[in-house]
Amino acid sequence: MMRFIVRRLLQLIPTLLGLSILLFLWLHRLPGGPETAILGERATPASRAAIRKSMGLDDPLIVQYGRFLKQLLRGDLGNSLNEKRPVLDLFLERFPGTIELTVTAMIIAIGLGIPLGYLAAKRRATWLDHLSVGASLAAVCTPIFFLGYLIKALFAVNLGWFPTFGRQDTTIDATRVTGFYVLDGIMTQEWDAALDAMHHLVLPGLTLASVPLAIIVRMTRASVLEVLGEDYVRTAEAKGLTERRIRGRHVLRNAMLPVVTVIGLLTGGLLSGAVLTETVFAFTGIGQFAAQAIDNRDYPVMMGFILIIAVVYVLVNLIVDISYSLIDPRVRVR
Amino acid sequence: MALLNVEDLTVVFGGKDRADVRAVDGVSFEVRAGEVIGLVGESGCGKSVTSLALMGLLPPKGNKVTGKAIFDDGVNLLSTDQRTLRDMRGREIAMIFQDPLSSLNPVVPIGVQVTEVLARHRGMTGERARKEAEALLDRVGIPDPRRRLKEYPHQLSGGMRQRALIAMAVACRPRLLIADEPTTALDVTIQAQILELLKELVHQDGTAMIMITHDLGVVAGLCDWINVLYAGRVVETASRHSLFAQPTHPYTHGLLASIPRLDSVRGDRLNPIPGSVRDLLPWVEGCAFAPRCERVLESCVEGPPALVGGAHAYRCVNPFGADS
Amino acid sequence: MTQLARKKIAKLERLAELAAVHANEGGESLWREAFRRLRHNPAAIVGAVILGIFVLVGFVGPFLVPFSPTQTGLGFVSEAQNIIPGPSAQHWFGLDHQARDEFSRMVVGARQTLLVGVVATAFGLFFGCLIGGLAGAAYGLGGKRGRSLDNVLMRFIDMLLAMPGLLLAVSIVALLGPSLTTVMIAVGFVSIPTFARLLRGSMIAQANAEYVVAATSLGVGRRKIALSHILPNSVAPVLVQATLTLATAIIEAAGLSFLGLGNPDPATAEWGAMLTDALARFEFAPRLAFYPAVGIIITALGFTLLGEAMREALDPKLRK
Prior knowledge:
- The structure holds three protein chains of three kinds.
- Chain A is mainly alpha-helical.
- Chain A contains 14 helices and no strands.
- Chain A has helices spanning 2-29, 33-39, 45-54, 61-73, 87-122, 127-140, 144-158, 181-187, 191-228, 231-238, 243-280, 286-296, 299-327, 329-333.
- In chain A, α5 (87-122) packs antiparallel against α11 (243-280) and α6 (127-140) crosses α9 (191-228).
- Chain A is globular and about 80 Å long.
- By secondary structure, chain B is of the alpha/beta class.
- In chain B, β4 (63-71) and β5 (75-76) form a beta hairpin.
- In chain B, α5 (126-139) crosses α7 (158-170) and α7 runs parallel beside α8 (188-205).
- Chain B is globular.
- Chain C has one domain (91-318): Orthogonal Bundle (MetI-like fold), CATH 1.10.3720.10.
- Chain C contains twelve helices and no strands.
- In chain C, α5 runs antiparallel to α8, α6 packs antiparallel against α7 and α8 runs antiparallel to α10.
- The longest helix of chain C has 40 residues, at 102-141.
- The relative contact order of chain C is 0.13.
- The chains are: A mainly alpha, B alpha/beta, C mainly alpha.
- At the A-C interface, α1, α6, α7, α11 and α12 of A face α5, α6, α10, α11 and α12 of C.
């Protein structure tokens, strides 16, 4: 198992290397060149010339790339144009919020999606099946930011059940330990702060969960339908096993294989969705930060965001591959 | 007294936008305790559907099962509720399937797939169940059973897999074992071993067995009584001795004639008739075998022939041995 | 055997023959059968009807609208006092925040949305199929050198796949500067990896299919096999994907608008931009958001329904 993980980690190197080349070229080709990325669009010609010289922008491209890569490896993503602080620090401050949000969304999507998909398959062609298939189709076709506004207007503004924005009520004076507000509240036993943080997570979590939920429902349904027709399910029936046993051990376990893969592929979409969802709910995470950077043309932040997202995506898919091999012994052998 | 008494079993497949298909059409037979009977016929003759109907394993929708199948002078397998059936399956009646690879769960170790039957029907768990599973694998002739318990189906050979499936089926010493083409997917050399194993097991435990096959060669050394099926109906039923000594129905005759010629493509001459028109109601216009029969008469297509004769019965108006 | 019996047998045999012919007709060409099954699928019909209306409105609508979509000052609008006139006999969908006729903007917006979706998808389709087709052909028929070409191309595609679609689109808009063309290129670019992987995958599957092996053994040239056997049979899944991509393209273009990277000309009537504008006024004029949102959802639904139905119709596993 260790060898499998190490090999997969090694396979990541070329992908990430290629990505760094793409990002380097992207930065280089931006309108106005990299100096604009550092100085912003309103820089004077004099300061442009100065920065070109100090950055060695007249060196050969390959030398410049070497420098760029060295910086990246040191964790230096440059400084934000807006906040004049290192991009990495700014991201690390906001990362916990996004992790809390995406994890919430994934818990909702998986926790609801798999049972719903299973039931839809088991009761094929009943109203439940049609409803879940129809609702998931509608969910993938709805722009997520519109859905966010709709949910916000209904549950936060009109009904007043949930807060409309942010991660924590400003009246709560919570102690910060990790930056994960829910976790902080639990660690410091400030229960009201933890509950309030969770309360703030519900609506954005639901919004962000909509697309993955829809995809997981449909994937689970299709997969369960296929597995239900398999010979080994018939064997399990012939053995007189209880329905619960057949469902848990024989149907779901096999049906989960494609679903697990899809969950990995969904992370990318989840992070794009976070950009939109966090903006709608003014939720301080890296998505909202990136959206602001897009608005301000804060290129170092944009680049940092893309890089971080790509690394996260690649790592999540590695985890997916590992859990896949845990479920399916046939993969392990290779 | 019969262990299983099947009377007038009929299975009709149909749906909203499909015409009904009579897959099994009034089949009757009985299985006495400890006896081995054969259901023989080519694919599509209804023999597998018969076995699935007896097990209550037909899909819940799209078919209608009528008739009676009284097990042990008590329950009617065709009309009892799923709960009772669930308790009986694997304990009283067990089944072995055709393709051992697809019939085993690929992501569950063999050991678990054996012990789950023991846990369900014999209340065995933990070390006791593991020991029993090991003994079972040993009994069906799997070498090094302790190691095999931890392995997954893809790590076993085809014959080994079928042995594992058999171990699961006999785990609770059922009184009736249904074997649906247990050797078809296997190499010829393994086939004989598996048949020998089955024969030994049912003999030791006094288990009755229904052997379902398209191959008269398989039943020849195994079955006490043989039913030949064609297009959903029994066309000939006789003791093994009588059937092989005196095959009466032209279809049985054809099946027998094709056995020894291993060099020729089997069933070549018996290729099913293409199309669907007559498949829907094969016996309405007369004998379903008539279009392929070399002894066909005018009277063959005037109406469905009845099952005639005494103990050795057949469904034919111009049987072998009736020549003058 | 009597003469009459022979006649009867002949009749039966003929029946069987007829049945066989019938079965053959059932196994007509892949496309015809798929089309026949599409017509029997209610989801496909609904999708096709939605798209039919959408395309009709997109083509004919702009000539029939009662007002110019860019004409402002059609009534009294005051955002400070939360006054935006609602639907009336004259203005069916009411006015928008700049006192333009919302109905006319919706109709003209359909054309713009259709344009963005179609051009973007065509862009992704073309380059995706170029890369995927090259990789697939190289892998399937090119020996060792072909394999490495395929490998390089696919690593590139994997890299693009590692970036979430919206962000990829965002970085392209950042690179090229926001404009209508940029939006179409960016949204189309996002679908390149999907098309490339799909075409390559199905080409490789086809290359191993029996009929290709047969053609090879008959000495048919490699290029001829690729062009006349493998490619046509790999087109079906790509077509399905294109239909589905049209839906995501429309939604993604709306997302770009929301992030301020859409068409920079605020006068242009485009559903995504209209939705973004309206969301800022969601609390006192939600209807302005609902029109474009419902337009986007229904259109995307139409493409998705049709695409899914096509996938089902072409899936050999489900064919029966």
